[in-house]
Write a structure and sequence with these properties.
mainly beta, 0% helix, 115 residues, globular, 4-stranded antiparallel sheet, 7-stranded mixed sheet, single chain
Amino acid sequence: QVQLVESGGGLVQPGGSLRLSCSVSGTAFSLFGMAWYRQAPGKQRELVIGLTDGGWQNYGDFVEGRFAISGDNDENTMYLQMNSLKPEDTAVYYCHRRIGAKDYWGQGTQVTVSS
């Protein structure tokens, strides 16, 4: 079955950087149709950045050029590079893959931005 496993979260100071990884198994890897979401306490889950099936990039307004999505086909892994992190970026970050009409989610990785 399809499995998504995030890693790389942790505590980082404001202005710092972090790279999250999403390991994909059970399906052929492709960045198309994959995305990163996040959910802060008391808030709804929101899109961070992703690629549509057609290759268009979508991202939240808060990204402001600070985050980038990439992938490694050999490693079956999607990455989220986050720079210039702010306290308001604190959230659980999830990777997502839609295959047909089905949505697949990882378990999430906590990112905390604090001094």
